[in-house]
Description:
Layout: E1 7-12, H1 23-35, E2 38-43, H2 54-64, H3 72-91, E3 98-102, H4 109-122, E4 127-131, H5 148-155, E5 161-164, H6 168-177, E6 181-184, E7 222-225, E8 228-229, H7 240-243, E9 248-249, H8 252-266, E10 270-273, H9 282-294, E11 300-305, H10 315-324, E12 326-334, H11 338-344, H12 350-362, E13 366-373, H13 380-392, E14 400-406, E15 426-428, H14 438-441, E16 443-445, H15 453-469, E17 473-474, H16 478-482, H17 491-495
Parallel strand pairs: 1-2, 1-3, 3-4, 4-5, 5-6, 7-10, 10-11, 11-12, 12-13, 13-14, 14-17
Antiparallel strand pairs: 8-9, 15-16
Helix pairs in contact: 3-4, 8-9, 9-10, 13-15
Amino acid sequence: MSYKNERVAMVMIPYLRPDYPPLALATFKGILNYEGISSKMLDLNIYVGSFFTDKEIQELENFCQGTQLNDEKRFYKKLRLFYRHYIKTSLVPFRPTTVGLSLFSFFMQKPAEIFCLELRKIFPDINIFAGGSGVTKFLNAEKKEIDDWSKIVTGNKIINHIIIGEGENAVLDYIKFKKQGIEFVPQLNNFDLREKLPCYDDLEVGAYKNKAFLEFDNNELTVPITASRGCVRRCSFCNVESLWPKYVFRPGKDVVDEMEHYVKTMNIKNFKFTDSLINGSNKAWRDINKEIVDRNLDIQYTGQFIAKPIGQTTQEDYDMAQKAGATKMIIGVESGSESVRMHMKKKFDNKSLHDTIENLSDRNIMSHWMLITGYPTETEQDFQDTLRLIERYKKYNDRITLSFVSFVLLPDSPIAYQSKYEGLTFRTENDYGHDDYSLVNYWICDQNPTLNFKKRLERFENAKKFGKECGFGSNVDPYKRTIKQHEAVHENQILS
Length: 496
C-alpha cells in the first residue's frame, strides 16, 4: 500500500494552554497536505472545559505542572471517559491508520499513555508515534539516555515509535517505513516552510479567540509563528539547549510571507512568536520588522524579548518594532538580584534592564516580566531585591504585567548537572518520596538548606501579593477566563 493512502490523525494531549491554535498540529497538517496524505487534527485542550468541573480542571492543571494527585484512581477514570468520548466522536469516523501525539511537557506522558490505551481498545493494531519536548527528559542527548517511560511505552507497544528532536522530516519517514522504538533526530540547520505552510483548516480556530494572555486589545484570533529555534543564551534553569543545541533562524522575508498568507487567507491581525527570543539575532528581528513595515501589514505581534547591554538595541530598532506592530514583549527578568541573575547566566544588569523597559514604554510597547522566586542560590536579601525592583517600577504598572513561578528543577537543565555548578548538590526532600516527579518541585539544595519547599512557596505567594499591592496586573489564566465560551457539548451529554 502506498504511504499516500495513509490516514493520519495528529492529537494534542491536554495541557490546559489553549491560548492559540497549536502550531505543531498545524505544521504537520501543512506537511501532510503537501504530500497528499489525508489527515485530521484534534486538539483536546479546547474540550476540557465542557467535560471537567472547575475543581477537576484545577486538579488537571496542577497535575500537568507536576503536582501529585490526591485521588489518582478517580482522576484517571474521568480522564479515560474524556478520551473515550473524543476517540469515538472524532477519530472513529475518520478511521485513521496512524495516530501521532504531540506532547508539550514531560508531565503529559502519563495522560498520553492513558489515551493510547483507550485508543487501542478500539484500534488494537493502530500505529502510534509521539513527539514533542515532552516525550523524554532528554537527560543526555549525546549518550542518548532517555527516561524509563519512553522505554516502557515502546517496549510494551503502547506507542510504536518515539521521535526525539525536530519532527518535520521524521514524521514522514515514520509514515512511510513504520519504524519501531526510539529515534533521535538531529536539529535541522534550517526549517523551510515556504511550500508547506502550517494549515489551520482542520482546527476549531474560533475556540481560541480571546485566549492570548490579554496581549492584544482586540478580540481577534491569534496565530502562532516561529522565526527561530534554539536560543543564544544558556540560562541555568532552562532546558532549551537540550532540545535545540543550536540557534537557527529563518529569513525575515520567509517569516513575513507566512504572516501575510494568514492575513490574506484567515484575516489574522494578531501573531504570537513562539521563539525562545525574538531578538536573539538583532539582524533577524530587524529584517522581520522592516518587511512588515514595507508591506504595510496591519498586524500586532508579541514575543519573548531579552534585555541586552545598552547600545546593542538601537533607538531605530525600537522605532521600527513599534511601526511593525510590536504590542507586548515578554522579558525574562527572573530576579531583582544581579547576583542571582549572574548565576542564572542571564547576562544583563539592572541598568540594561532599565534601558530596555524605558525604550519599550516610551513607544507604548507593553512589557510582561517573568519572575522566578526560590532559585537555589536565592537568599532573603536576594528576594528582597526582587521586591524592591517591582516597587521601583510601580509607576509603570499600566505598562507592565507580571507573572511569577516558583523555581522548578528541570532534570535536563544546566543547573541540574552538578559538575557545571560547583558547590550545588540537590536531593529530594524526605517528606515527598522519590518518584519521577519529586525532584522537579520537592528539591532541596544542600548549600542553601533553609530554602525548603515551604519557604519557596511562601516567597512565591509573597511576591504575587506584593506585585498586586503595587498595582501590577498579571496574565490571568486564559483558560479559566474563557473556558465557558467554547460551544462544546456539556458534561451530561458526553457522559450519556
